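BUG-198 | component: ligand-complex export | severity: low

The export step for FE2/S2 (inorganic) cluster jobs runs without errors, but we want the raw record kept on the ticket for reference. Input record follows.
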Amino acid sequence: MTTDRDVTGREGAEAYTLRVNGREVRVAARPSRSLLDVLHDDLGLGEVRYGCGEGVCGTCTVLVDGEAVSACLMFVAQAEGHEITTLSGLASLAGDAAATEVHARGRALHPLQQSFLRNGALQCGFCTPGMILAAHALVERVGQPTREEVAYELVGNLCRCTGYAKIFDAVAEYAGAAADGTRARHVEPVSDHGSVAS
Ligand code: FES
Ligand code: FES
């Protein structure tokens, strides 16, 4: 359906229904508008950030049906019918009702985020959300990735401020716990002084 204007005031917008972080949202956007712009600018999901706009840096990484995708390279029209997850929605994928309940209050950490915290792997808010989402997709896909596989997966999540060692440790701890069944199925509430790296 064509509407008059999108949030940028330009004519030629169309209405799209997206599923983002478990919820259905309606947006008006020109078909050529990127998913990144819609998530960040229209829906206020600040953890999805513009870095290069060319699919190189990883700051705009989101999960599309569980796979890590550069949102700057995806048109909003291509996102309809798919499940979009950003870092602030990751906790809802942890898998139990309590997790969803905590997440609904917007204050929860997925076990992978907890592992990043424990291992001192958190970098800045530009690079960390994408790293966590890319690592999540990898572990879901292969189970227990080798260090080399993690490095390969994160090659598109750039940070010149880290040697990545603690990040690899965090992913290995999370994947190992998942493999031996000790991964927490609940989501930790964040204290008032906690960080969610988003
Ligand atoms: S902004 Fe999308 S990969 Fe850099
Ligand atoms: S780019 Fe985020 S800490 Fe280096």
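Assignee comment: Attached the raw record above. The first helix runs from residue 35 to 42.
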